[in-house]
């Protein structure tokens, strides 16, 4: 429908968020990559960051870049100044931080206390809840660089959200204001949820970095340029098709090729052998379960993966191997 047929809509020019009345004052305890980006996103939504805490040089630089004019103060002072406090510290430090803030009387009744840990739900905030705070767990499923690009990446980013029933609407509103999409995670499912994200995102970085190093050792001048299209297509296929996207020598049952890989890795990059074998075994199991790896080819392959030994027939001629050249 043409816009002229909808007279009830009168969009106003976009204004500077600093010129709009702020609804909540925002504080950040732990002005690291995540905290600075989320506070900057909340500022764009009309809230007002008023204080942050951070002691490392990198925290000070990030706060200066993403939260200019926001003073760096002690954690207790952050809570004294803010209606909404982001606790963006490492997972293992979170329980002790919450207990310490409560013991010192820094937590105020009615104060929104938000942590961004993927591991924990709201139970870790129980001491603050007993002090009258309103607990929320909002974990952005995103990697952060500590630069302004992080705020842009929040657009469409899923957040793992855990909150008491009476605060679900508030949690959802905050996530949407930051540009994200709320995904509700039960308290007891938080560790599994976080493990799944770490398995995919954190281990992916390790795999890509190792692959780039091996390509450089093989004489490839621009491994990033070579891997970009391949990994982009593999990721897209995996997200669309799951296990049906499996390809390569393990899924095909090319035991000789896999044995040759292991031999070369032992020679040139022995530190990568354990990871290669572990991922290849997992790939073989999934390929077998989904009918992609033929059982008659699996025996030789699994023998190689069990001990990293040469397949029957030698690395260039495994028994029953294929030569269809499919995929990587």
TrEMBL record:
Family matches, as Pfam families: DUF2520 (PF10728), Rossmann-like (PF10727)
All residue ranges annotated as the Putative oxidoreductase/dehydrogenase Rossmann-like domain in the record: 17-140
Region (Disordered): 1-22, 308-328
Gly residues compositional bias, start-end: 310-328
SUPFAM superfamilies: 6-phosphogluconate dehydrogenase C-terminal domain-like (SSF48179), NAD(P)-binding Rossmann-fold domains (SSF51735)
Ranges annotated as spanning the membrane: none
Entries under Gene3D superfamilies matching the protein: NAD(P)-binding Rossmann-like Domain, ProC-like, C-terminal domain
Database matches in InterPro entries: 6-PGluconate_DH-like_C_sf (IPR008927), DUF2520 (IPR018931), NAD(P)-bd_dom_sf (IPR036291), OxRdtase/DH_put_Rossmann_dom (IPR019665), TM1727-like_C_sf (IPR037108)
Domain DUF2520, first and last residues per copy: 157-283
Protein name: DUF2520 domain-containing protein
């Amino acid at each position: 429908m043409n816009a002229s047929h909808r007279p009830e809509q009168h969009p106003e020019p976009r204004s500077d968020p600093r010129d709009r009345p702020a609804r909540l004052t925002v504080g950040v305890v732990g002005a690291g990559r995540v905290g600075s980006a989320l506070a900057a996103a909340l500022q764009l939504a009309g809230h007002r960051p008023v204080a942050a805490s951070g002691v490392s040089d990198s925290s000070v630089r990030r706060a200066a870049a993403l939260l200019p004019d926001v003073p760096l103060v002690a954690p207790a002072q952050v809570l004294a100044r803010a209606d909404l406090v982001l606790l963006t510290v490492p997972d293992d430090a979170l329980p002790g931080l919450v207990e310490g803030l409560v013991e010192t009387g820094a937590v105020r009744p009615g104060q929104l206390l938000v942590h961004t840990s993927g591991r924990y739900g709201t139970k870790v905030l129980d001491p603050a809840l007993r002090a009258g705070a309103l607990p929320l767990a909002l974990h952005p499923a995103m990697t952060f660089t500590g630069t302004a690009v992080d705020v842009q990446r929040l657009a469409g980013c899923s957040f793992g959200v855990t909150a008491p029933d009476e605060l679900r609407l508030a949690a959802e509103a905050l996530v949407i204001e930051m540009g994200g999409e709320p995904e509700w995670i039960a308290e007891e499912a938080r560790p599994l949820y976080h493990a799944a994200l770490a398995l995919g995102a954190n281990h992916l970085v390790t795999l890509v970095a190792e692959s780039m190093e091996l390509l450089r050792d093989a004489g490839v001048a621009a491994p990033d340029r070579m891997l970009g299209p391949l990994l982009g297509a593999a990721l897209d296929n995996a997200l669309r098709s799951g296990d049906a996207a499996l390809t390569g020598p393990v899924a095909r049952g090319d035991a000789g090729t896999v044995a040759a890989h292991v031999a070369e890795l032992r020679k040139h990059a022995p530190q990568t052998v354990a990871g290669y074998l572990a991922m290849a075994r997992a790939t073989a199991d999934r390929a077998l379960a989904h009918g992609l790896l033929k059982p008659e080819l699996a025996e030789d392959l699994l023998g190689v993966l069990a001990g990293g030994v040469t397949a029957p027939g030698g690395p260039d001629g495994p028994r029953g191997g294929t030569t269809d050249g499919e995929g990587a």
